[in-house]
Every structure is written in C-alpha cells, then in structure tokens.
Amino acid sequence: MCGIFAVVNDKSNQAAQTTLIGLKKLEYRGYDSWGIALIPEKRKKIKVEKHIGKIGQAETKLPNGNIAIGHTRWATHGGVTDRNAHPHLDCKKEIAVIHNGIVENYKVIKSNLSNKGHVFKSETDTEVIAHLIEEKSKKVPIIKAVFDTFNSLVGSNAIVVLDTNTETVLACRNGSPLVAGIGNNQFFLGSDVPAFLKFTNRVHFLHDGEAVVLSKKGVKLYDLKSGNEKMLNAQILDWKMEDAEKGGYQHFLLKEIVEQKNTIPKTAKINKPALKTISEKIRNGYKIVMSACGTAYYCTLAAKYFFAQLGIESETYGSYEYLPFTKFANKKTVFISVSQSGETADTLIAARAAKKQGAYIVAVVNARGSTLERLADSTLSVGAGPEIAVVSTKAFTAQLSTLYLLAHYAINKPEKGISKIYQLGKSLEKWINTKLFTQITKLAATLINNEDLYLIGKHLNYPASLEFALKIKESSYIHSEAFAAGELKHGVITLIQKGTPCFVLSSNDEAKDEVLSSAAELKARGGKIIGISPVKSAEFDFHIKTLDLGDLTFFPNVIVGQLLGYYLGIGRGTDPDKPRNLAKSVTVK
Ligand code: F6R
C-alpha cells in the first residue's frame, strides 16, 4: 500500500518532475492522493505540492532542485484530503516525511508531542514521525534522530525523510518494501524497482532493520539497531525499462495478459535446482501445505488438483485463516507460500507461524528482494517480470505453472511437466490473437449492463471459475460469483432467473458431462449460458472456444476471464490498471 519515491542529485535539476515520473510508475500501489516535497535551489525551506485523486496526467509546478521525495497514498488513517496526503512536515518545515505502513502507537506519540507544543495539521499517523524527528534532532544529529524515531514506532513501516539542513534523504525499513537505486551519480529510492528503472537497474533491496542515507556523494547502508554502517553490495537486475512501460498497449493489464504466452513457458527454464531440492523433500514424505491470499490463493487451490492428479496429497489455506491450523505444521512440512509481491501481511504471518513450527518454507514469488523470499528456506522465483496492473494475471499463471512443474518433479517426471508447459506456451502464442479479442469484446458488449453474473466449474474448473469471477469483479465492478457445479442444487440455483448470465467453465475431461448437466439445469431456469470450453455444446447460448489441452485447459479458460474483465472494465469506464479501493501489495492485516 502506498508508493514511495526519492531522488538525490537529480541530473536534470528537476527533481520534482523526476519524482512525478517515478510516482506514475508506482500509482498501482495507492491512488487516493499524491504529493511531492522538494528542496528548491539555494533555499532551506521545503516546498510541497499535494493533490487528491489519481496522478494520471498530472504535472508539477514545483521549482528546480535536485533533491525530492514523493508519495502515492492508499489511505489508512485520516480521510482522502490534501492535508492528509504525504509528505508531512515538522513545525519548522525543515523535515519532510513519507511513509508506507501503520504507526500503531501514533496516538501516544502525538499526545506527548502536543504537550511539548508541536502543532499537527493532518489526521494521519505519519505526521507524528516528522515531529518526533524534529524533537529528537534538537539533541542529536539527524541520522540518530531518524533511527531512534523509527525504532520507537510500533508496526510494519517504511519511512523516507528529507532533511534540508544536511541535504540528505534518510530511509528506514521494517516490514514495508523499500529499494535503493544506485545510478550514475544520481541516487533513488522506491517502494518497487519500476519507479526508477528508467534511470538504473543497480539496486539494493533493504532488509528489515536496515536504513540508507542518500546524499550527493552516494548511498550508505546502516544497521538500524546499532546505527553502524554496513557494506552495501548492490545487484544488477535483468529487468529492462520496457518491462515497466506499456509498450504500445492502452493498459498494463492488457499487456500483461498478452505477455503470458512468454511468461508461462519461461517458468520451465528456471528454478531447476530449487525444484529438485523441494521435490526430494516431497518424495521423502514431507507433507505439502500451501497458503496465500486472493488470486494467489486460487493458484494454490488449482495446484492442489494438479498435485492430486499425480498422486500427491496437499492442503491449502487462505493465509488469513491459517492460524488455527498452524499447530499441525512440523519439521516434515513443506509450507508453500505463494505471492506476487512477497509482502502480503497475512501471507507473511502464516509463513512465519509455520516456520516457527519447524516447517520448510518455500516462497513462490514474482517480485524480487521481498520479505517472503528472505524468510523462506527455498525460493521459486517465477520470473514474470514487473506486474504493474493491480489485477494479477501473469504472476498468477507463472506461479501456477511453477507449481505444475513442482508436481512433475515430485513424481520424478520433470521432463513431462516441462514439455507440457512449453506446449502450452506455443498453443497460447497462436490462440491469443485479434480473433479472440474480437469475440470477447462482443461478449462483453452483451454483458455490460448486467450487475450479477454466476459461474460454475467442476474439479480444476472450480478454482478456474473462482479466479475468473475475481477478475470480473476487480476490473469491471460487476458482481460475479463462482460455485462448484456440484453446489448448484444446494441453494445457489434460487439465484437464477430468466436471462441471468451463467458462465460454464469446462474442459474435455471426466467432469465435463456432469458440468453440462448443471448447465442444462441452469438453462431450464432461464439462465443465459456462456460456455468457456474447448468443446461446443448444445447448452451454450454463447461459446468462447478455448484450447483442448487436458488439465492445462485451466490456463486458457482463466485467460478468457482476464480478458473479459478487461473489456467489461473498459466498457464500464473503470480504470483496469487501478481498480477502486485496491492496492497492489497489501502490507497491512
Ligand atoms: C487479484 C489480486 C489480489 C492479490 C492478493 C495477494 O488480482 O491482485 O487478490 O492476489 O492481494 O497478493 P500477493 O500475490 O502479492 O500476495
């Protein structure tokens, strides 16, 4: 939640404009409001610009200067107002602070500072940080004041502080992502790499308990508890600037959906040593327990079917519901945590709880340098590249194909899994084309004014339906609800009336006939049946033909949902890249 950006020694001397460019890349992390603080040339007082709403095509009128910080907000404490937007200042306007996280003890800090005469201008928890640093810096140097302040905050937080007196940017991390970019004599901070990828791919992902100080001379790394300087070993990422650009597409969401024809087969090339290590444990009797949230949770549900069909037992939990079951994890558990960001609070809590029980933690993760990756014993990095759209698509399919491969490694048939994933990539390459887009656009046009859609699927097509429905909800705000086909007669069927759109997801498999019987039952109640399937059937009023790939039909069936959500969103005037109320990484419980 919230996007953070900073630049020091900006080459163009237009640090505010550079910050705006960075913030536009981070808008997917929060888009209630945005703000920039800058030290203008030859002046000591910080200049601030703040606005509510999306950053979109915004421009900044801030003057020249080579040092600035900026923030896109996803509100937690305090409504969406200019005043509550970050950055927040101290009383003397010499310190500006931006923040990602929640300061759980902010009320106590605020009341102590108020008693000392500090005046607060916002309702946020963040503003107390600026004033506490101001108070502490009366007695100690700014670096110590910042570290001491940060160490006294309760909660998962990342802060970035702009200090006019030393002309430095100081940043601290505990539980919220922060990455430093080391460019050619100009230095950056971001919540995520795409923010500054245009300028550098040389990075250091801050660990919890680390801080950096950016000055004209460079970036210094510190341990927050001791205050001692540490060795900074920057790494070069293989990400390119184009990865964070729309590349001719109108939206990142569409670009990322199309990219799946490359990102899925890429998973068959990577992670081989880790897949071997983890699969050996599974063969040696370790029990698989998976955990994740949202789309990533549906990925684990689908993986459970993939494991089962190869004779491997597994369990999965929404991470937010895992704690009552933690006690069953032990030294013979492989605990697979799936996450695009690797920063989802509930996912991390579940993984830490399983780790405490002695479980072997596997992170199936897309973003780089994440908290999840650091706490895991082994990482399957799914390599889908930066996923900018808030709605997860390519990360989901890359995670699932990685788990599909793991299942094949576990039964000692890696080559079979690899060749099936390559084949899937080739089939998607041909199938994802203008003809498919036209068909789905036509379908979207018939559904645009519906407020309720229902979906059914059986076996693998059940998690496919859940994920399909989530894509529609997120991208178009249409209420869409998925059920296991077998659940239909146990209550759900009351919802069906004349003309109710009912999606029936099926594959050419053992469950097909049963699902089609359910489709017939829906049709008999007036339902308008939309078949998503490789095979046409008499029950369908509308049919999107997918690919006949056995168990891997799951993938094209879900991709139809991703595309349909996208086109419905466009038709209904939503912003498919940034759905309302959502943030790309949910770093609070
Ligand atoms: C759906 C979506 C969310 C995330 C969920 C978990 O499109 O993006 O449901 O899947 O918030 O996020 P990660 O994968 O980062 O743990």
Automatic annotation (TrEMBL):
Top EC group:
transferase
Q: Which CDD domains match?
A: GFAT, SIS_GlmS_GlmD_1, SIS_GlmS_GlmD_2
Tell me which EC number(s) this protein carries: 2.6.1.16
What reaction(s) does this enzyme catalyze? D-fructose 6-phosphate + L-glutamine = D-glucosamine 6-phosphate + L-glutamate
Q: Domain SIS spans what residues?
A: 278-416, 443-579
Q: Which Pfam families match?
A: GATase_6 (PF13522), SIS (PF01380)
Please provide the record's keywords in A-Z order.
Answer: Aminotransferase, Glutamine amidotransferase, Repeat, Transferase
PANTHER family named in the record:
GLUCOSAMINE--FRUCTOSE-6-PHOSPHATE AMINOTRANSFERASE, ISOMERIZING, GLUTAMINE--FRUCTOSE-6-PHOSPHATE TRANSAMINASE (ISOMERIZING)
Could you tell me what this protein is called?
Glutamine--fructose-6-phosphate aminotransferase [isomerizing]
